[in-house]
Amino acid sequence: MRCARCSRENPMGAAFCTGCGAPLPQPQVQPQPQQPNVPPTYYAQPVYGNQYSQPCSQYSRWLAFVLCFFVGVLGVHRFYVGKVGTGILYLCTGGLFGIGWLIDIIMIACGSFTDMAGFQLRI
Q1: Neighbouring-strand partners of residue 23
Q2: Looking at residue 118, what is its pLDDT?
Q3: pTM assigned to the model
Q4: 101 vs 43 pLDDT, higher one
Q5: Which one, out of 32, 46, 78, 113, has a CA that is 20 to 30 A from the CA of 23?
Q6: Residue 103, helix vs strand vs coil
Q7: What are the structural domain ranges in the chain?
Q8: C-alpha dihedral over 64, 70, 73, 77, to 10 degrees?
Q9: For residues 46 and 55, is the Cβ–Cβ distance under 8 A?
Q10: What kind and span of H or E run contains 108?
């Protein structure tokens, strides 16, 4: 670091010039930006099989299929994957009069049924 007053070279980090005693300019330290407080996430988190696979749900597709097959008209499979609103609708209407129940069985069997976060169910 060079002194502006006497042009003498000084060691890095020195507060005063070794030749004339003049105060040296100190490098400004940029404060690190504060990270905002992020509340914990209580939603379903994706599960990765390996580094190349797509994220999938933490819920089992086979368990959802069994629940849908036996008690699907009550919406138990929808409660299982976190879709509480449509679970209550299925509970009150008998699986949307059986039509929604049948569609859900086909969707679960084909692998296109998703959980509340939109992730496909794991096998």
Answers
A1: 16
A2: 87
A3: 0.57
A4: 101
A5: 32
A6: helix
A7: 1-25, 61-110
A8: -20
A9: yes
A10: helix 99-110
Query: Which of 70, 54, 71 minimizes the C-alpha distance to 111?
Result: 54
Residues 6+ apart with CB under 8 A from 109: 65
Q: Which amino acid is at 117?
A: A
How far, in whole angstroms, is CA 39 from its chain's centroid? Answer: 12
More confident residue, 84 or 22: 84
Written as one string, the DSSP assignment of 41-102 is P-SPPPB-SSTTSPPB-SSBHHHHHHHHHHHGGGTHHHHHTT-HHHHHHHHHHHHHHTHHHH
Per-residue model confidence (pLDDT) at position 17: 84
Residue, of 25 and 59, whose pLDDT is higher: 59
